Amino acid sequence: MHPLNLAVAFQVLDNIKNGQLRSCLAMGFEEKDLQTLIDPRSMGTLVNSPVPWFKITVDGTVVHRLLAHASNADEEDTIRRAISLGASTPMITELFGLPAKEVAVRRDILGIPHRKGRWPLVGPEEENRLWEHWVRLTKEQGTNMQNPRSVLEVTMSMAECEPTLNLTMVWNLVQRWIADGLV
Question: Sign of torsion, CA 89 93 95 98?
Fold first, then answer.
């Protein structure tokens, strides 16, 4: 018995049961086949066949569209997470290309208040803790220092480890470490 025969047979039976005969016809069956497939013995013959009785084809256009949607969904999740952790508008604009108005709307939707002015600098004790997080997380996540999104993933994890700090503060510190050649 070929393993996919059963799956295709169940789909065909479900289509017939629900009156979706056009779906069966689109799969390659003829009307006379559908009348025969209602008989359990006929379907049993197909299910128990050691050879596949169908061809699988990939619709490349649909696959690419679905993968692009998945990628966009991941990016949307990352943007939402970054804003929730306190990413500044310039930071989101730089990393994701969103205009300031779009960032403001997203911040409103997430219920995050607007903040004006600069964030305070990270203190020495906090910096030491962040450095320990940085060393551990960059190894765990295999961070590519040349890829700003890879660095962002680590800084978001660092900000989650230190709830008294926001992502902008952590990001600015990490950018200073990078500029000073410490990482």
Answer: positive
Q: Is 170 helix (H, G, I), strand (E, B) or coil?
A: helix
Max CA pair span of the chain: 79
pTM (two decimals): 0.62
Separation CA 106–CA 112 (nearest Å): 9
DSSP of 17-66, one letter per residue? HTT-HHHHHHHT--HHHHHHHTSHHHHHHHHT-SS--S-----HHHHHHH
Of 2, 113, 120, nearest in space to 53 by CA: 2
Q: What's the number of CA atoms in the CB half-sphere (13 Å) around residue 79?
A: 24
Domain boundaries, the chain: 3-47, 60-110, 124-179
Length in residues, the chain: 183
* pLDDT computed for residue 17 by the predictor: 87
